Amino acid sequence: PVTLPHPAVADNCDNAPKVDSIRQVIPDASTFCHGNYTVRITWRAVDKCGNSSTAIQTFFVRDTVGPVFDS
User: Fold this and answer.
1) Which of 8, 28, 47, 55 has the fewest CB atoms lying closer than 10 Å?
2) Are 63 and 33 in contact (CB under 8 A)?
3) What is the pTM of this model?
4) pLDDT tens figures, 4-38
5) How many C-beta atoms lie closer than 10 Å to residue 22's C-beta?
6) Separation of alpha carbons 56 and 41, rounded Å
7) Secondary structure percentages of the chain, helix, strand, coil, to 5
8) Cβ contact 5:13 at 8 Å
9) Residue 17 contacts by C-beta under 8 Å, 6 or more apart in sequence?
10) Is the dihedral angle over the CA atoms 39, 40, 45, 46 positive or is it negative?
């Protein structure tokens, strides 16, 4: 898996809002290729005042490399 940095978050109440995330890996049901899937990351930021905001990042992973003969 790829490690992504936290997104930049700005807030007028809190200089360092708490940021957490949920990562979902969704298989591509339209093919039988295990190399095709979607990664969806839902980011959530919460400030000291209890206000929150969410953002979603979506990555589509596709296997585009053909087979290679060993010898």
Assistant:
1) 8
2) yes
3) 0.77
4) 777 899 999 899 999 999 999 999 887 778 889 99
5) 11
6) 6
7) 0, 40, 60
8) no
9) 9, 11, 45, 46, 47, 48
10) negative
